[in-house]
Amino acid sequence: MQSSWILAIRSVRPLRRLAPTLTPRATCLSLLASRRHFQTSSPRPQDINPAIEDMAPKAPKFEIKTPKGTRDWSGSDMVLREKIFRTITNVFKRHGGVTIDTPVFELKEILAGKYGEDSKLIYDLADQGGELCSLRYDLTVPFARFLAMNKDVSQIKRYHIAKVYRRDQPAVKKGRMREFYQCDFDIAGLYDPMIPDAEIIRIINEVFEGLGWQGKYTIKLNSRKILDGIFQVCGVPDASIRPISSAVDKLDKMPWEDVRKEMVEEKGLAPEVADKIGKYVVLKGKRELLEQLQKDEELAANASMQQGFADMDLLFTYLDAFNAGHSVSFDLSLARGLDYYTGVIYEVVTEGSAPKVSAASADAEKSKKKKGKAGEDEDRSDDPTVGIGSVAAGGRYDNLVGMFSGKTQVPCVGISFGIDRIFSIMRANQAKKERKNEVDVFVMAFGGGKDFTGLLKERSEIAARLWDANIKAEFLYKVKPKLQNQFKAAEANGVPFALILGEDELAQGKIKIKEMGLPEDHPLKEGELIDLKNLAKEVQVRIDRKKQLDAIIEQAEGLRVVGGIKGEDVKVEQQAKEKEGEVTPTPPVQTEEVKAEN
Amino acid sequence: MQSSWILAIRSVRPLRRLAPTLTPRATCLSLLASRRHFQTSSPRPQDINPAIEDMAPKAPKFEIKTPKGTRDWSGSDMVLREKIFRTITNVFKRHGGVTIDTPVFELKEILAGKYGEDSKLIYDLADQGGELCSLRYDLTVPFARFLAMNKDVSQIKRYHIAKVYRRDQPAVKKGRMREFYQCDFDIAGLYDPMIPDAEIIRIINEVFEGLGWQGKYTIKLNSRKILDGIFQVCGVPDASIRPISSAVDKLDKMPWEDVRKEMVEEKGLAPEVADKIGKYVVLKGKRELLEQLQKDEELAANASMQQGFADMDLLFTYLDAFNAGHSVSFDLSLARGLDYYTGVIYEVVTEGSAPKVSAASADAEKSKKKKGKAGEDEDRSDDPTVGIGSVAAGGRYDNLVGMFSGKTQVPCVGISFGIDRIFSIMRANQAKKERKNEVDVFVMAFGGGKDFTGLLKERSEIAARLWDANIKAEFLYKVKPKLQNQFKAAEANGVPFALILGEDELAQGKIKIKEMGLPEDHPLKEGELIDLKNLAKEVQVRIDRKKQLDAIIEQAEGLRVVGGIKGEDVKVEQQAKEKEGEVTPTPPVQTEEVKAEN
């Protein structure tokens, strides 16, 4: 066995003597397969044999890139995104959520007729024989298809985090891509009214608090029933209700004058009807707005409105019990584009997610758009009409499943988080970059002079023992590494501990552990000798201790940040702590009606 | 505020009085949007107003299904798959792995010319204007494209768990799909030879041990250099090396006679050359096989062979240090289909993953295939020639990145785990199904008679307090639920604890906690009263205690299973424990050569 390690040590160079002498082969790939120089250790790009270099592949003629509107995720970006996923998944599971996974493409017919005029943005697969398929446009329609197929699933709280595809104008810097993640939580099933709807809003709160947004977001809330009631009362013809609703939905990007223009000039609405609508849709508030609307006799007489009032009244009541109402804004301008909503709708915005646009600049953009398809594929990140948009949106859709299953309806309410937009905002506000990997220990060899073997065998064995103990560890893939290079590699990834092997220490059954980045005057700056016998335990204890310390420091830094937030930002957690032990039973309420029904 | 809760309690029925009186609208969807009956609480499918029912959507004319070769994942299947992902990710991170995410489709040109005759299985996107794209076929080519684009990334240990797409014959039951997960770990960069190659094999061990396979798998190992050396020595013309190599690769599915036939009849190899190959490719063993080959003078004179010998010698040495050699079989029949491998190659098989097939049945299958395209799209799960296949495979590919970047080569070695196949095997061997969700507490109301309010407000508040404390909790979305139905719901999901609110207990500031499923004679069968003040703490203590207990029981059951395994299965962990404290330093070795070089 010993002799092999001699070979290992020798192998650093002797193999180079085996010059590639292979004859040319039929294909370029096979030819390349016979090249050897990357297998030997020493050669760096500059000392490659020029004769071989001539056989190297030429760079391809096309540009090496990802398709337009898509990107790779790696490095600290990827770490941050994974962290966002973990936080959100944790919230979903806390509420009993289970996850499902559907194919990335669906039969073309499944998606057809679900997205109105946005259907043109659907990606189709080429017809290569067999079924015609399209890439999914969202996660909601596949979920409805899933429910229609699985009749035994009549109640489910499901979450789904996956990519969806839209052949849209990309605005990369603002997180609007053609391939992007959606992250959906939906509650399907027949329940007593508004309880799941309220839990969804509680979940929205938990997600953004979990992400550290500390109340700096607004959950805009409305109801399709209230909106439809307003349109009916104002005198919008039934056939125009959805188009007029779409126009109202643009109020977050366009001033009222432009929306009114669209209603009257493009959609043929009578000007006085538009003006009447205008009085309502600018209203926003909390529960008191609901009470105000309920006093409006004209509205109160409308059937759709009555249903909407009852829903919202219950919803506000439940939100109080869930302690989830503080970020909610009842906003009559919220309409949501999609056809399939039937009840409560909501959309979450944060500072800067919906830029104020003057009528003039919107006009300029419009005329630019009409100029033709020249710039169709360009990145629209610098277009002022493209905001970050909402960071989450959803609502109740009670009839979508029935579009697939016929009679069997499964009412649903859900929320979709725009992960890429959330990421863009958090990335911009990030104080320090995330570490790229999670390695806790870098195993090094110390030694010098002619006799230094590099201790590769010992480093390998130590690493293997750490891995066996589920400790994340690395070492340099070099037979005889310099100590300096080993420290550099550890520092580059922010590895917190170095385990340093030396021949003298090994002979005594010891190894040195050194915490990286300690200040000069720290008593443990030079490291500690620990027994090889208890290696895993000794290392684990130090990792745990450091993690606890880091968590305390991070918490302390977090508190400092919270201190800087404006006073009226109510913190869910603080409130929760104040509430501890505060639950008082409601005395049993008896009304004639309840009595009569029992 | 009190009045709203009266409304909530009342709302169970009164809202039904609001009969839908809306007029028909332009679109079916808008019409449906006005339907109300799913918003009210009591109606079940059977008491839907028949007049409305007529307006319900008709079931669509096409079959509601997922595209051929794809499936939905949900329920306990999904939980098991997530568990597999977690185990594998844990191993990858332990070795310093970082993850990247690439788009699901690539420019068509990126994939072109990388997969030989399998290129016909690539899914293309339809040409809808703009770039031509294809769905990724594997994760390796996108990784190579990523490295070519990111010149600053010269060394990386990356993992990537994502779906890939192949227009292949599906064999659903055996886990061979058109959309399936791959799970790749690759080490890219220029290092001293064979150290990363050995770490990949160590990782393979850790993954399958982590999944509980306890040594019941074989890592077949070979080297393209050794294989090419054999072909050269046997007299295979250079142009035929890759086709002959492909034929050899079929030895796990076909008997030697058939492979020989293909070589001679289809690929025009001289019969005596084929026979000479036949003597080598049946050999398998461990390190002693390498020593045996090294003694073969004809082989030893071949340059490619010399490089292969040196590689394998080092590899076996490093595998010993990593304690990772026990499941390895040096197997000269392993050739791997893909063109791009340049060095060591490996493939992991497990019992039953490669069914023995007689020449006759293979012939039958062949003639069936030639019959035409009639059955092209059928599920081939019952086809005996389709085994589960390998559960992981990979190797060294030093020249792939250069195909994109031209001169800048980044040598790579990696492994790809076939998640769906691993899943199929584990699903079949699974003793008990996984729980569908992770809820720890079900919040219930107890009460009876006319005065029972259902305590919805209190249940909501208790649930909100548990969520605040990061405790997973649910309650029934029903204003006045029956206790029996609440227990049923908790049992259906295997929720371990019930928190039961009663008005008398609430008045004393208490609440009952009950562990589900305790035996009749258990002292805590009837539950315990705990203080509402310390709710979260009291609950958390009990959850933690139960989890510890469950872990001990699971471990005990695991040991029982291990006891039944055949004795020669060496267990990595046991060995590791035996080794603790056993690392002995290698005395510094001096050779003339090393001396001279220092």
Automatic annotation (TrEMBL), chains A, B:
Enzyme Commission number(s) from the entry: 6.1.1.21
Keyword Zinc: no
Keywords on record: Aminoacyl-tRNA synthetase, ATP-binding, Cytoplasm, Ligase, Nucleotide-binding, Protein biosynthesis
Catalysed conversion reaction: tRNA(His) + L-histidine + ATP = L-histidyl-tRNA(His) + AMP + diphosphate + H(+)
Protein name stated in the entry: Histidine--tRNA ligase, mitochondrial
Molecular function GO labels: ATP binding; histidine-tRNA ligase activity; RNA binding
Predominant subcellular localization, coarse grouping: cytoplasm
Region (Disordered): 357-389, 573-598
Function according to Swiss-Prot or TrEMBL: Catalyzes the aminoacylation of histidyl-tRNA in both the cytoplasm and the mitochondrion.
Location in or out of the cell: Cytoplasm
The UniProt record lists the keyword Nucleotide-binding: yes
Bias-annotated ranges (Basic and acidic residues): 573-582
GO cellular component entries: cytosol; mitochondrion
Residue ranges constituting the Aminoacyl-transfer RNA synthetases class-II family profile domain according to the UniProt record: 69-426
GO biological process, one term: mitochondrial translation
Entry similarity comment: Belongs to the class-II aminoacyl-tRNA synthetase family.
Gene3D superfamilies membership: Anticodon-binding domain, Bira Bifunctional Protein, Domain 2
NCBIfam families, alphabetized: hisS
